[in-house]
Request: fold
Amino acid sequence: MLRDISDLRKSYQKNSLKEKDLPLNPFSLFDRWFKEVKSNSGNSEVNAMTLSTIDKSGFPKGRIVLLKYYSIDGFIFFTNYNSDKSLSIEINNKVSISFFWEEFERQVIIKGFAEKTSAELSDKYFNSRPKGSKLGALVSEDQSSIIESKEFLIKKFNLLTKDFEGKEIERPENWGGFIINPIEYEFWQGGENRLHDRIRYSLSENLWKIDRLSP
Ligand SMILES: Cc1cc2nc3c(=O)[nH]c(=O)nc-3n(C[C@H](O)[C@H](O)[C@H](O)COP(=O)(O)O)c2cc1C
Reply:
């Protein structure tokens, strides 16, 4: 049966993105938007982003990961280096990350090249995590592989909790960060009557070229 959800419709009118407000470097605009969203979004995970990669058979896959650090040099998330996403990045490090900030009717899509972060940065972030999350990373040492049951995970968690009682947990070698060095940003601001603002910055010979795209 065809479920009819065609009446789910919203009009966008909260904001606009005008040429006069565009900085030369897209990082400044990302930073401005992120800060605005973060300070007005309560508990929602404004740092959740969809990471899209291409696997070895050429299929794209998007999944959510959490942005943990960002700077003009790139956007950093952490994961298991044996996971599907990491294997895809090994084959093809051209990736995309995208954010949807519903309250602000905004989307940002960034394309770039992913590279592993330094061991020092991965250690710094791993060491800052609560013990439960560190144990979780150990339990899920084979992220993305098939497991027999949820029980299997819980047993492993309980065993490791005992093993590490009163002890520090070091970052496993197969867990760490990726940094995405952007070559393109697209900023989307929802507009009335579907006349959305779409501003694309593309890197060309070390300069950011700015274009407005048809919505
Ligand atoms: C809100 C949210 C945050 C997540 N954050 C991360 C993250 O930071 N790192 C990570 O590896 N997986 C994170 N995940 C899980 C991933 O979406 C995904 O299930 C997992 O990384 C395995 O993906 P893969 O098999 O494609 O490699 C998160 C999921 C959600 C819904």
